[in-house]
Amino acid sequence: MSSSKLLHKIKSMVLITSSATALLGGYCFYKNDERLFDYVLMPLMRLFEAERSHELAVKTCKYKILPSVDYKDPDSLNTRMQNIFLKNPVGIAAGFDKNAEAVEGLDKIGFGFVEIGSVTPFPQSGNQKPRVFRLIEDDAIINRYGFNSDGHETVWKRLQQLRSHQRYEGVIGVNLGKNKSSEDAVKDYVDGVKLFGPVADYLVVNVSSPNTPGLRKMQQKDTLKDLLVNVVKENLALDLPRPIFLKLSPDLTDTELKDICGIIKKKECKVDGLIISNTTVDRSMILHSQFNNEVGGLSGKPLKEKSTRMISEAYKLTQGKIPIIGVGGVSSGQDVYEKIRAGASAVQIYTSFAYHGPPIVTKIKKELEEILKEQGHQTVQDAIGKGITYQRKSWFGLF
Ligand SMILES: Cc1cc2nc3c(=O)[nH]c(=O)nc-3n(C[C@H](O)[C@H](O)[C@H](O)COP(=O)(O)O)c2cc1C
């Protein structure tokens, strides 16, 4: 064979192979294939610095460059938080879509609800970079973003646009924060309630992020009472008051949690739900990754048990009377089921989504559907607060 013929043949082979690979990759992407994301796309994303890949992920959702999802939520996954109906109990946690840019894309992926924020009254850039770290070996993240936010006005305009002409009717929570330099923290939250009430399905008072100096002190009895009295008053003044959720830190002591559960029962401080939990500053668990000593909030697997235990405690302290959104280390149907049995009405994920991408949402929902069936629950609602006793059957029924 002449050398030009050989070259031509090699070129054709390369072209055919790369076209076939591209077609197969495209098909797998279109089909929301877990393996494509776990073995190719997410490792590629990890070549970028963590904050850069977060930005890319938000843009991907914003421009809806997303795989199609065939899975239709079955009735068994329906749940409720007060009068908010959810098609499924898996929401995206605050901090992913801080500025309400990606709501429709996140809905398309299959999330049952989207929480945006934290939003601060005025735009602020947050802490110095780098401020997000992957702890790959621990399935965890440490972040110290420090409420980088486009501010109330810009975020409100985006939500207002989404809500106009009934363009988007999915459930949106707005997570409220305060500016770092604010001299009147209570006003920051009250302003948020007033502005976002009309465009949100629920509002979150976030006093539990570890990256804004002094913020978590707002969980202390008297400070919290003062904050909640004002927030509740403003909410009741809205044409249509919204459910208010209080997001808590997993680092509260038992006594602090008990005090908070007492306060939120009082009429003038009454919130409609709890979100448990934010990230932890606790480092007492064994962590294996290079960045385990970075300052900031730890999320993901190492947080899982701690947040589930706290959900269980809060459920008991509130006699199951208010809904709890369970957050912290959820990455499977079983994790969701455990949080629901501990007392959660719904859950949220962030870190597992950052590691596995869109297919994890359908994976979690399918697993949960299976577990509910196996355990004889008609819906999520039937399993709420039933206690943490469940052990998934092994394949061989041996243990
Ligand atoms: C990078 C990053 C940024 C976050 N930003 C916020 C935030 O702005 N407001 C908030 O309430 N929680 C924020 N969180 C906390 C999450 O909402 C969630 O409570 C926590 O990560 C635990 O869930 P996970 O283990 O599924 O990640 C953030 C978490 C991460 C990882």
From TrEMBL:
<comment type="similarity">
    <text>Belongs to the dihydroorotate dehydrogenase family. Type 2 subfamily.</text>
</comment>
<dbReference type="InterPro" id="IPR001295">
    <property type="entry name" value="Dihydroorotate_DH_CS"/>
</dbReference>
<keyword id="KW-0496">Mitochondrion</keyword>
<protein>
    <recommendedName>
        <fullName>Dihydroorotate dehydrogenase (quinone), mitochondrial</fullName>
        <ecNumber>1.3.5.2</ecNumber>
    </recommendedName>
</protein>
<dbReference type="GO" id="GO:0005743">
    <property type="term" value="C:mitochondrial inner membrane"/>
</dbReference>
<comment type="pathway">
    <text>Pyrimidine metabolism; UMP biosynthesis via de novo pathway; orotate from (S)-dihydroorotate (quinone route): step 1/1.</text>
</comment>
<dbReference type="InterPro" id="IPR005719">
    <property type="entry name" value="Dihydroorotate_DH_2"/>
</dbReference>
<keyword id="KW-0999">Mitochondrion inner membrane</keyword>
<keyword id="KW-1133">Transmembrane helix</keyword>
<dbReference type="Pfam" id="PF01180">
    <property type="entry name" value="DHO_dh"/>
</dbReference>
<keyword id="KW-0809">Transit peptide</keyword>
<dbReference type="InterPro" id="IPR005720">
    <property type="entry name" value="Dihydroorotate_DH_cat"/>
</dbReference>
<dbReference type="GO" id="GO:0106430">
    <property type="term" value="F:dihydroorotate dehydrogenase (quinone) activity"/>
</dbReference>
<keyword id="KW-0560">Oxidoreductase</keyword>
<dbReference type="InterPro" id="IPR013785">
    <property type="entry name" value="Aldolase_TIM"/>
</dbReference>
<dbReference type="GO" id="GO:0044205">
    <property type="term" value="P:'de novo' UMP biosynthetic process"/>
</dbReference>
<keyword id="KW-0812">Transmembrane</keyword>
<feature type="domain" description="Dihydroorotate dehydrogenase catalytic">
    <location>
        <begin position="77"/>
        <end position="372"/>
    </location>
</feature>
<keyword id="KW-0285">Flavoprotein</keyword>
<dbReference type="GO" id="GO:0006207">
    <property type="term" value="P:'de novo' pyrimidine nucleobase biosynthetic process"/>
</dbReference>
<keyword id="KW-0472">Membrane</keyword>
<dbReference type="InterPro" id="IPR050074">
    <property type="entry name" value="DHO_dehydrogenase"/>
</dbReference>
<keyword id="KW-0288">FMN</keyword>
